[in-house]
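Q: My labmate handed me this sequence with no annotations at all. I'd like to see what the chain might look like in three dimensions before we decide whether it's worth expressing. Could you predict it?
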Amino acid sequence: MIGKKEKEEDDPMTLNEAITLVIAAAALALSIFTYITERLRERKKATIDAYNLLQNEVLDKLRDYTAAQMKTIAENSKSQEYKAEYKELGTLLARFNQFAVGVNTGVYDIKILRRLAGSHIGNQYKLLKPLIEKRRVHSPGVYKELEKLANDMPDKARKKPTGTVEETGEVR
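A: Here is what I predict for the chain of 172 residues:
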């Protein structure tokens, strides 16, 4: 009996143990795949939800403004007539920039955003540009996240993000 016990200790693995190990490895691989797939789905959903919130809280309110009105508000931001509106637009701009931080850091999926918003993000950035320039007089780096996002969005004509707003004067 001693000889048989020594022989069992020398066997690296029985067939049953090998099958069990293969099944366990397959289950682990499936679990990892499921986890990654679910995380990607959640990120896409979070992007859609965040964009819908941005649309409701910011972009819908910006529809009421023309480029000329934005320029007038920015130029007259200290006057009583435009002071409150300038402040409200500043709040919308801050919210828009926060969303841009989420996209630029990978919290939200930029590919999904491109499919949702296309050139709309760039167009809104262009609309807000007079306000951004006004605020950059005192804080040069402000709204860089929003600018980066606008540059990463496709232009209607090209359907491809290229260039920068600062280089071209256009959102690309």
